[in-house]
Automatic annotation (TrEMBL), chain A:
Compartment list: Nucleus
Xref: CDD domains: bHLH_AtIBH1_like (cd11444)
Molecular function GO labels: protein dimerization activity; transcription cis-regulatory region binding
Alphabetical keyword list: Nucleus, Transcription, Transcription regulation
Lineage, opening ranks: Eukaryota, Viridiplantae, Streptophyta, Embryophyta, Tracheophyta
Name of the featured protein: BHLH domain-containing protein
GO biological process: regulation of DNA-templated transcription
Zinc in keyword set: no
Native source organism of the sequence: Cucumis sativus (Cucumber)
From TrEMBL, chain B:
Keywords for this protein: Nucleus, Transcription, Transcription regulation
Keyword Nucleus attached: yes
Residue ranges with Basic and acidic residues bias: 185-197
Record keyword Transport present: no
Signal peptide: none
SMART domains recorded: HLH
GO cellular component, one term: nucleus
Domain BHLH: 207-257
Compositionally biased residues, Polar residues: 121-133, 142-167
Cell location: Nucleus
Superkingdom, natural source: Eukaryota
A Pfam family assignment: HLH
The protein, known as: BHLH domain-containing protein
Length: 140, 369
């Protein structure tokens, strides 16, 4: 029940925020730069809601929220300005760079947080798929 | 029992407390008196020590550069002191009837005092009323290196065998010796009872038992457990063996998920935003179940900071269709801090109503579940 509750909360907040982000842009006949900005906004909203649902206890959620709130908003969400040069060749380094806030974790924490991150990301993908399918079915 | 003794004892330097032995020697003599009940049947090591040339014995007993030699000598000296009968110790400090010099005996007392000194700090779980016997039991497995082949050491154990064999030989010898004294066996059982909550990692035969190795093994087991959990989480990852391949698969999965989120956000941005959507209809038209994934470690979800009371839902419900035509400045301004909704404007009412209806529908869904 708690699982469904958290999933519903994620769905809730994601849908509300996506609606929220969409309404800030213009309509379907928008120029591509506006579309791009709009999609970025949607992505920010989606990641932010996901991190908020995951809670402050998760290191990746904290890092994601920090990055979302400190980054200037014209920057792309998931792009890093400066890649860490250390341990970039092995698999753990790759995973470290992939996970938000993974540069400062040790390997145990990194794997644990990765498990939780995969959970949340897969649920997020399902939620966004559901919303977009619904919209497409409404349009068609 | 032997594991922890080996771990704590093996990593401590021995010969570093050679300054305050004068004070301890007095106490040592008192404790020696308590030791005298042990039968003297294994005095061969002491005689072996005495059979050495005095210069070599002193050199062996001195040698501060190699701690292992000190440990070995310490151990043998313990045997010696324990097995020497009482009359020799009554005349301990004056003239000894042993055919040796008095400097050797002083070294003996110093080393045993040293051993008694360094043992309580290495094993912190020892109660304070532990006798010399217990400390001797603890000290004996510290002879775990074989870098000092001398005839003294061969009496105790073979210097070239591995650690566990040496320790088992020692234990046998100790048991053979300690048959008469029930005190030692009681101490051992006491020690066993105390060691149980401390040893979490089992070391098999032939594995290293010092604390770094144990910690490293615990860490590796933890990483393996996490890896197994991740392997169950990522689809199609069960059949792969090998840490690098599994990590590669995990990385690909995370990347694909992130790309999917990106793609879906683009797709959602391309969709006409004026379409009103209802969560109930979304869930009704949903083919695959959203709730199938379980969140074992997810914390309690963050609810909306402010949700209007339920009675206002019908009142705000007609404004739900004005989503696309609301005031743009208000939305754009509030977008960047959307975690604190404090709407002074009228345009946010529709948003709140949408959240409210969504939560209500989700409540309905929960009731259905």
């Amino acid at each position: 029940m708690a699982n469904s509750k958290s999933a519903i909360t994620l769905l809730n907040s994601t849908s509300s925020r996506l609606c929220f982000a969409r309404t800030s842009a213009t309509f379907a006949s928008a120029p591509p730069d506006q579309l791009k900005r709009q999609s970025r906004r949607i992505k920010m909203a989606a990641y932010s809601s996901m991190a908020r649902v995951a809670g402050r206890r998760r290191a990746w959620a904290r890092a994601l929220l920090f990055r979302l709130h400190t980054r200037p908003r014209h920057k792309t969400l998931m792009r890093r300005k400066r890649r860490p040069s250390t341990s970039s060749d092995d698999m753990v380094g790759k995973l470290r760079r992939l996970l938000p806030g993974g540069e400062t974790m040790d390997v145990c924490t990194l794997l644990e947080e990765t498990a939780n991150y995969i959970h949340c990301l897969s649920t997020q993908v399902k939620v966004m798929k559901a919303i977009s399918n619904h919209h497409l079915s409404k349009v068609n | 029992m032997e594991i922890k003794v080996g771990t704590v004892g093996g990593s401590s330097p021995i010969g570093r407390q050679s300054d305050d032995t004068g004070l301890e020697s007095l106490q040592f003599c008192e404790e020696i008196q308590g030791l005298m009940t042990i039968p003297a049947e294994n005095a061969s090591s002491f005689t072996a020590l005495l059979e050495l040339p005095a210069t070599q014995a002193l050199e062996l007993l001195h040698s501060p550069d190699s701690a292992t030699a000190a440990v070995v000598n310490d151990d043998s000296v313990h045997h010696c002191i324990k097995d020497v009968p009482k009359p020799y110790f009554s005349a301990f400090n004056c003239n000894l009837t042993f055919p040796t010099n008095s400097g050797l005996i002083e070294r003996v007392t110093k080393l045993s005092v040293l051993a008694k000194e360094h043992s309580p700090e290495t094993t912190s779980s020892v109660p304070l009323n532990s006798s010399v016997n217990l400390e001797k039991v603890k000290n004996e497995p510290t002879t775990d290196t074989d870098s000092n082949p001398n005839p003294l050491q061969t009496l105790i154990s073979d210097p070239t065998v591995e650690n566990t064999n040496q320790r088992s030989a020692k234990r046998k010898e100790r048991e053979k010796k300690g048959r008469g004294s029930t005190k030692k066996s009681k101490n051992e059982s006491n020690e066993d009872a105390e060691k149980l909550p401390y040893v979490h990692v089992r070391a098999r035969r032939g594995q290293a038992t010092d604390s770094h190795s144990l910690a490293e093994r615990a860490r590796r087991e933890k990483i393996n457990a996490r890896m197994k959990l991740l392997q169950e989480l990522v689809p199609g990852c069960n059949k792969i063996s090998g840490t690098a391949l599994v990590l590669d698969e995990i990385i690909n999965h995370v990347q694909s998920l992130q790309r999917q989120v990106e793609f879906l956000s683009m797709r959602l941005a391309a969709v006409n935003p004026r379409v009103d959507f209802n969560i109930e209809s979304i869930l009704a038209t949903e083919n695959e179940p959203i709730l199938e994934s379980n969140f074992p470690t997810m914390v309690s979800p963050l609810m909306w900071p402010e949700i209007p009371v339920n009675g206002t839902r019908q009142q705000y419900q007609p404004q739900w269709h004005f989503d696309g035509s609301v005031n743009h400045q208000g939305w754009a301004r509030d977008e960047h801090n959307h975690h604190n909704f404090s709407p002074p404007e009228n345009s946010l009412l529709s948003y709140d109503s949408s959240a409210n209806s969504a939560s209500l529908h989700s409540n309905q869904l929960k009731m259905e579940l």
